[in-house]
Specification:
The complex is a heterodimer of chains A (about 260) and B (about 260).
Chain A lengths: L3 E10 L2 E11 L4 E5 L6 H8 L7 E6 L2 E2 L8 E3 L11 H5 L1 H5 L5 H10 L15 H14 L4 E5 L7 H17 L3 E6 L2 H7 L2 E5 L6 E6 L14 H19 L4 H5 L7
Parallel strand pairs in A: 3-8, 3-9, 6-7, 7-8
Antiparallel strand pairs in A: 1-2, 1-4, 4-5, 9-10
Chain B lengths: L1 H28 L9 H10 L1 H35 L1 H14 L4 H12 L3 H25 L3 H9 L4 H37 L6 H10 L3 H29 L11
Helix pairs in contact in B: 2-10, 3-4, 3-6, 3-8, 3-9, 5-6, 6-8, 8-9, 8-10, 9-10
Classes of the chains: A alpha/beta (about 260), B mainly alpha (about 260).
The complex binds adenosine-5'-diphosphate and magnesium ion.
Chain lengths: ~260, ~260
């Protein structure tokens, strides 16, 4: 059974049909990345899985259980860190678990140490850099008891160097604490570097345009970015995105496909 | 305290200068005492009349504190229910604003007719002057909670009460304290006005007696004590704010 099953989802906001027949699934402990142009409905997918919106049609199942409209079934890391300024790093990291009624302080401290935040356990978020804040937000998601972690473009607000650092950091932490991850990004390189599988979605109508199994062995490091094979894959994925846009006409459409490359 | 000394000396110096000027003008122009008493005369009255004035001061302080506490409670309860129940907000908020357009002085006789001369009408007067700044400030604070924070809490499965107590309430606290500061100073004024409704003791009573017997020096003593009392209340709230909100950095940029 898939860990997460999203089946024939349709979602409109008034006359604006954002998701039209979207289907995909994720296996246990798999790292899956959804890549698609901005405005294609990626955050909407998360809102549906997170239960704060309900689809017009379709099935969403977590480990075989219907989770439509059920909040709190997944753990979440947003694009902005959204840390509570009156809480210390430790208290912030425990928030997700606290909401579910199960805190583990010792594990939190241990994880903060592993994450390179040992000096900041009792600091307040305002003392942290952007990258550190995102680490805290990720640890908060990791410490939440839910089995599936959803990350919505977590690094897109960071500068390039920090972003690369964060990607490497995320991989190393994830390889230690394996969880099922659904990751959303703009960046093809980020997707190739991090994931086991990439789902390319098309816009208007939004549905799965292509899927790629990423063949690189783990653990991965940044030398991968210069690998011949990696560049080939990058071309392939870029192509699939471009192609998918070509049957729509006009400049306006093409503009939405401009991807940020790292 | 250090802070007060560092920042406070300028206005204090100006104040002292003003008093000296006042003294000189009164002495030179020989204004009659009942029109404008000299500062030294007021000071004299404070010292010599202290024992008889003291009970009035205590009485007013007490009623002001009581009224402030009731007003704060009412203000917060109103704010929270307006915030949590949208249909109450839509239907009641405009009326609340309207209620602030009715001068308390005009309401006072009505309150006496309805509730007599006891403690209740006084508390109502103070509550009416106090609660509105708190309600407005708290509502404003609730509204300022960033969408991203709320979105995270909802995605992470926060219930309505978790959302309120873990996010909205702490987020609104700095705003609430701004409201409390205003209300604390209003409460002294409210207390004095409420004593005009009829009381045995209090600065309001003292003031009425003083002005009807042309003891202008005593009127000034009353005014001065109201100012000092307001300032004291304000300082207490500032201290509480410092204690409860240690997280807010200057110009805090929250993310
Ligand atoms: N709550 C909402 N109400 C109305 N329209 C929305 C809402 N949320 C998203 N949309 C619309 O859905 C589309 C996809 O948005 P979103 O899921 O945020 O895209 P992405 O995350 O891929 O950039 C956009 O056109 C947006 O205007
Ligand atoms: Mg988005």
């Amino acid at each position: 059974m898939s860990h997460l099953l999203v089946d024939h989802i349709v979602k409109s906001f008034g006359p604006n049909e954002v998701l039209s027949d979207l289907s995909f699934s994720i296996e246990k402990e798999e790292f899956v990345t959804i890549i698609g142009p901005s405005g294609s409905g990626k955050s909407t997918i998360f809102n549906l899985i997170g239960g704060i919106m309900t689809p017009d049609k379709g099935i969403i199942q977590l480990e075989g259980n219907n989770i439509i409209g059920k909040r709190g079934s997944i753990s979440f890391m947003p694009q902005t860190p959204s840390l509570l300024p009156w809480r210390t790093v430790l208290q912030n990291v425990l928030l997700g678990a606290e909401l579910q009624g199960k805190k583990d302080r010792d594990k939190a401290i241990e994880m903060l140490h592993k994450a390179g935040l040992a000096d900041y356990v009792h600091a307040r978020p305002e003392e942290l850099s952007g990258g550190m804040k995102q680490r805290v937000a990720f640890i908060r998601a990791l410490l939440s008891p839910q089995s599936l972690i959803c990350l919505d473009e977590p690094f897109s607000a960071l500068d390039e160097l920090t972003r690369l650092e964060m990607q490497k950091w995320l991989l190393s932490i994830w390889e230690d604490y394996r969880r099922t991850v659904l990751f959303v990004t703009h960046s093809i390189e980020e997707a190739l570097f991090l994931s086991d599988r990439i789902i390319v979605i098309s816009v208007k109508p939004t549905k799965v345009a292509a899927e790629f199994e990423v063949p690189f062995n783990r653990p991965r490091d940044e030398s991968l970015f210069l690998d011949e094979e990696f560049l080939k894959w990058k071309r392939t994925v870029t192509y699939s995105l471009k192609n998918e846009g070509s049957d729509n006409d006009g400049e306006a459409n093409r503009r939405t496909y401009s991807f940020r490359s790292i | 305290m250090n802070f007060l000394i560092r920042k406070g000396w300028r206005p204090i110096a100006v104040l002292i200068l003003l008093f000296i000027l006042w003294e000189i003008i009164v002495k030179i122009t020989k204004v009659p005492d009942w029109l404008l008493p000299a500062p030294t005369m007021i000071l004299n009255e404070i010292i010599s009349g202290w024992t008889s004035f003291y009970p009035d001061l205590v009485s007013t302080s007490k009623i002001a504190v009581e009224g402030f506490l009731v007003g704060t409670t009412v203000g917060l309860v109103v704010a929270v229910s307006l915030h949590l129940v949208p249909w109450i907000r839509d239907s009641v908020y405009p009326l609340l604003i309207l209620s602030q357009n009715v001068p308390i002085i005009v309401l006072a006789p009505l309150l006496v007719i309805w509730f007599g001369f006891g403690l209740l009408p006084k508390i109502i007067v103070i509550t009416l002057t106090c609660f509105f700044p708190i309600t407005v400030a708290a509502l404003d604070g609730f509204k300022q909670v960033p969408y991203s924070h709320k979105h995270y809490m909802l995605m992470a499965g926060a219930g309505k009460s978790q959302l309120f107590w873990k996010l909205e309430w702490p987020y609104a606290l700095p705003s609430i304290f701004s409201g409390l500061k205003i209300s604390a100073t209003y409460s002294v004024m409210g207390a004095v006005i409420s004593e005009w409704l009829g009381a045995e003791k209090g600065i309001g009573v003292y003031m009425t007696l003083a002005s009807s017997s042309f003891r202008t020096d005593k009127v000034f003593v009353a005014i001065l004590s109201i100012m000092v009392l307001s300032l004291l209340f304000f300082a207490v709230i500032v201290a509480a704010e410092k204690y409860f909100i240690r997280w807010q950095s200057k110009g805090g940029n929250v993310e």
